[in-house]
Design a protein that fits this description.
Its EC number is 1.1.99.24. This protein starts with 16 loop residues before the first strand and ends with a helix. The radius of gyration is 20 Å and the shape is globular. The protein has 2 domains: 23-185, 3-Layer(aba) Sandwich (Rossmann fold), CATH 3.40.50; 195-420, Dehydroquinate synthase-like, alpha domain (Up-down Bundle). By secondary structure, the protein is α/β, with parallel strands linked by helices. The protein is 45% helix and 9% strand. The longest helix has 23 residues, at 238-260. It is built from 16 helices and 8 strands. Strands 1-8-5-4-2-3 form a 6-stranded parallel sheet, sandwiched between helices. A two-stranded antiparallel ribbon has the order 6-7. It binds nicotinamide-adenine-dinucleotide and fe (ii) ion (FE2). The site of fe (ii) ion (FE2) has 6 residues, from α7 and α11.
Length: 422
């Protein structure tokens, strides 16, 4: 029997983008151009309090379009919170949706768009083996995403992340139809972000770029049986590499300043660009193990409360991702030492050689995390040795991310990474 041939093709897609200071004010014109007559703006209570969603509503109404605001999106959305938003949205027929907020709001808007245009519930569409992996077969409504964090890149991606409460597990739905029709990125909307949200969402940007940059190469994976159904994450490739390298450089140069002085407009601008670059890269190449680990870390959390976030137990996504990143990148180093050293250089501006070895990149990450007051280690979230097997179980269910991990991962390796990260 001959071995299956490797893939020779990679994919890249992104929504149209409007980026810049004041871009937000163009939202009325954008919706008028799409002939929308009745629009629903979604946001969460923290973002509502900044006044940005009210400004968006004013601009939309000024364009002669009916507009209501749903301001009860849950931070780190769950199947239950999404269900509530969908029930609310089903009361009327909307021509378009606008998400004003971080990844929590944009993901909720994607789910609302999907479930007001298709039947079934979110779990039907979640990636197997957690959900049924159903494919949305009809059109959805236009969705404009206005990110107010420099973080998830959800405004560019096909992904919606949900915390499945009964399973104590986060999981994702991914389909091209979920991608927003326009990403409207205005760095001014990020100025009010609390410093710990800036730090965590900035580490999310960093990890998106690093994970896609070090993901398994697209042409070392077997060719898909059906080329029209290539997986959402195709692996690292020359186009996503360009976006990721730029994002790493910008995060290394500007994240500290954005965290320490939220009014530093240049730092905010550059971090918004970094987030856009990384979102454009990882949405196609894919994220791997730090994200796969983040899902059980966030899903199983019990008593931890994060500064700058709503008063409820949760591990914010960026903190969950960053927690195992140093250990993961020490482990992935042998898959491509040059790339890991290059990433450390882009982030730090220093020069590294093979003699610096597997610890060079983890060292740069730990220094940055200490400088921006990120929690160090899983024990900060209440995890100990006795949680490791359950955390590993959760990671091994994240098939979308595991498909692009650059080394063969077994239970023992996954457990070691969690143990080193305690
Ligand atoms: N779809 C994707 O591609 C993708 C990728 C990564 C993460 N995610 C998901 O996104 C979510 C995290 O999103 P996030 O990190 O952007 O944060 P978030 O949306 O959860 O918001 C975090 C907190 O910051 C507040 N906030 C946001 N912007 C603000 C601003 N400008 N001023 C003041 N307060 C502000 C919010 O009110 C909230 O309390 C998680 O659920 C994660 O799983 C999605
Ligand atoms: Fe992320």
């Amino acid at each position: 029997m001959t071995a299956p041939a490797n893939d020779t093709v990679f994919t890249w897609a992104a929504p149209p983008l409007k980026f810049g200071l004041g871009a937000l004010d163009e939202i009325g014109g954008e919706l008028a151009a799409s002939r929308a007559r009745r629009v629903l703006v979604l946001t969460d209570p923290g973002v509502r309090n900044t006044g940005i969603p009210a400004r968006v509503q004013d601009r939309i109404r000024a364009a002669g379009i009916e507009c209501e605001v749903f301001d009860d999106v849950a931070v780190e959305p769950t199947d239950v919170s999404i269900d509530l938003a969908v029930k609310w949205a089903r009361e009327k027929d909307w021509d378009a949706f606008v998400a004003v907020g971080g990844g929590s709001t944009i993901d909720t808007a994607k789910a609302v768009n999907l479930l007001t245009t298709h039947d079934g519930e979110l779990l039907d569409y979640v990636t197997p083996p957690i959900g049924a992996g159903r494919v949305p077969d009809g059109p959805v409504k236009p969705l404009i995403a206005v990110p107010t964090t420099a973080g998830t890149g959800s405004e560019s991606t096909t992904i919606c992340v949900v915390d499945l409460l009964s399973m104590h597990l986060k999981a994702g739905v991914s389909h091209p139809r979920l991608r927003p029709t326009l990403a409207l990125v205005d760095p001014l909307t990020t100025v009010s972000m609390p410093s710990q949200v800036t730090a965590a969402s900035g580490m999310d940007v960093l990890s998106h770029a690093l994970e896609s940059y070090t993901a398994v190469r697209f042409d070392t994976k077997p060719a898909p049986a059906d080329p029209m159904r290539r997986p959402a994450f195709c692996g690292s490739n020359p186009i996503s590499d360009v976006w990721c390298e730029m994002a790493l450089k910008l995060v290394g140069s500007h994240l500290r300043a954005a965290v320490h002085n939220g009014r530093d407009l240049d730092a905010r601008y550059q971090m918004a660009l970094a987030s856009t670059y990384a979102g454009t890269g990882f949405g196609n190449a894919g994220t791997h193990l730090p994200h796969a680990n983040a899902y059980p870390i966030a899903g199983m959390a019990q008593g931890y409360r994060a500064h700058g976030y709503p008063e409820m137990p949760m591990v914010p996504h960026g903190q969950a991702v960053a927690a195992t990143a140093p250990a993961v990148f020490a482990w992935t180093y042998p898959a491509d030492p040059e790339r890991h050293l290059r990433a450390a250089e882009l982030l730090s501006g220093a020069t590294f050689t093979r003699t610096d070895g597997a610890e060079a990149l983890p060292h740069v990450l730990r220094e940055l995390m200490a400088d921006i007051d990120m929690p160090s280690g899983l024990s900060a979230f209440g995890y100990g040795e006795h949680h490791i097997e359950s955390l590993v179980d959760g990671t091994l269910k994240q098939t979308r991310q595991l498909a692009v991990v650059p080394r063969q991962l077994d239970r023992a390796a996954a457990a070691d990474i969690f143990r080193t990260s305690l």
